[in-house]
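Predict structure. Chain length: 177.
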Amino acid sequence: MYATLDNPVDTLVPFSHGVAKDPEPCLETRKLRRPRILLAEDDQEMRRFLTETLRRSGYNVMEVRNGYGMLDFIGKGLASEAGIDLDLVISDIRMPGANGLRILSALHSHCPTLPVILITAFGNPETHEEAKLRGAIAVLDKPFSLNELLAILQYALQRKNTTRKGPGLHDPERSNQ
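Prediction complete.
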């Protein structure tokens, strides 16, 4: 069952290019709280809209306004004992500070099972392919359907909680079969 705006999902439960030495803080299953999503979007109106939509759908959303904010959030998480306390990341690709593809690589070097959804107004086949190779669950071209975003988000969280397989690009066509 996929999430929609009328049927929100509320029951789901520095850079380094090396492999994480201790990925456990990224693997914890947190069933007693709302899933935590980090949203990185430099367009203020889009960020507010997505944040409100996700919160109404039952998610705990932390937002950052650019790549600098994302890098700061990740750095603080890696420096803490708890690690990066997130269930999913949604990031714009083109932002001041660091682009979403670079952030994707950094996240997956430390938290290989953390699902990342990328969004972009400048999508092209090369960008989608690069995102796939770096481990994105999905790349959505703006404007995108909120129902599609919520469905992919639910899929990614369910997959994260039921399997430890490496990341791969979500193919909405194949998941509907």
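Summary: Residues 136 and 158 are 16 Å apart (CA to CA).
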